[in-house]
Amino acid sequence: MNLYDLFVKPYENYSSLQILLEATGTFFGILSVYFSIKKNIWVYPTGIISTLIYVYILFNFGLLGDCMINVYYTAMSIYGWVLWSKNSKDHIHVEVSWATNKERIFAGILFVLSIALVTLIYYYKPYIDNQFSLEGTHLGLYHLDWANWLDVITTSIFLVGMWFMAKQRIENWIFWIIGDFICIPMMIFKELAITSVQYLVFTIMAILGYLNWKKSLKEKSTIKS
């Protein structure tokens, strides 16, 4: 399979609106990560725009299970927005730190619960994708391919990453790096080539974000000492 088949051919049957929406969602997603690196609260409004666009895209593709997960992303972004607003002195920027042991234990529990939740959504996905009708529908996980199982894992990784980010913890970037890297081949498989490029950019930006937040904390510690 050549680059044309991967990045152009899937879009031959897409409308101009669908292509524009995916490109717009990608733009705001990248902008959101940029603001995150800068510890700027605009990470959340730009991120919400991106996730809402993908809610619309996935709904129109009939991927209602994936759509519901993006609704959850949107809700988590609103939670993070509120939390950052409370913890920001200038209502724009926040201070960052490493997570406590208690927070890391909670993150582990959240990861396991997220896997259970997303697996449950996929279990009922045939029912959801059939417009919430059981007629001719068989519940189960039989319909999952390797990309779907990766989606279960990456979704759980991202949910923990979003929680760490809402708490302004440096560990959030570790989860974004792992999840974004895994999503690159997964999005190509789903014929969302623009989105796969987005995740490549996300991976690079997440590495920069990790280094930037570590540097920021080190500089803050040096000033205090």
UniProtKB/TrEMBL annotation:
Major place of localization? membrane
Where would you find this protein in the cell?
A: Cell membrane
Membrane-spanning ranges: 15-35, 42-62, 68-84, 105-124, 146-166, 173-190, 196-213
Q: Choose one Gene Ontology CC annotation of this protein and give it.
A: plasma membrane
One annotated GO molecular function is: nicotinamide riboside transmembrane transporter activity
**Which keywords has UniProt assigned to this entry?**
Cell membrane, Membrane, Transmembrane, Transmembrane helix, Transport
Database matches in InterPro entries: NMN_transpt_PnuC
Q: How does it sit in the membrane?
A: Multi-pass membrane protein
Q: Where does the signal peptide begin and end?
A: none
Q: Which family does it belong to?
A: Belongs to the nicotinamide ribonucleoside (NR) uptake permease (TC 4.B.1) family.
Q: What does this protein do?
A: Required for nicotinamide riboside transport across the inner membrane.
* Name this protein carries in UniProt: Nicotinamide riboside transporter PnuC
